[in-house]
Design goal:
The chain has two helices and no strands. It is mostly helical and 143 residues long. Helix 1 packs antiparallel against helix 2. The chain is rod-shaped.
Length: 143
Amino acid sequence: MSFKFQPILNLRKHHEDNCRTRLKEEQTKLRQIEGELTVIEATKKRQEAEAEQLAIGAVKMEYLLSGSEYLEYLRRKREETKARRACQEEVVEQARVILVQARKETKVMEKLKEKKAREEVEAGLRQEQKNLDEIGIIQIYHS
């Protein structure tokens, strides 16, 4: 059986594989951003605990200032990372939509190929039945 659209099917499968790879890459980037956010949160909590300990007893102004500046930096970094995460979630969703569309296109071609193969098998069976019928008729007339 020769499927005349096989090159197109191959291209669509290749495109689908590329879309799947891109989705995985984008999901990996999202996980990295979420990891950064987790680290920032943990660092912020440690810094707040350290600032509480330094606030007990004699307080040195330098430590208090540097600690509050660092906490402010961590807050800004957290907000920036959350914004990056939101953007990356959109990119992941777009990649997922593109993959779904590519999969649909590939499935259409695969179904067309299966239908063509079934039609060829059925045509072969009809031809074989026709040949057997002719052989039967010939044998009836020669008997």
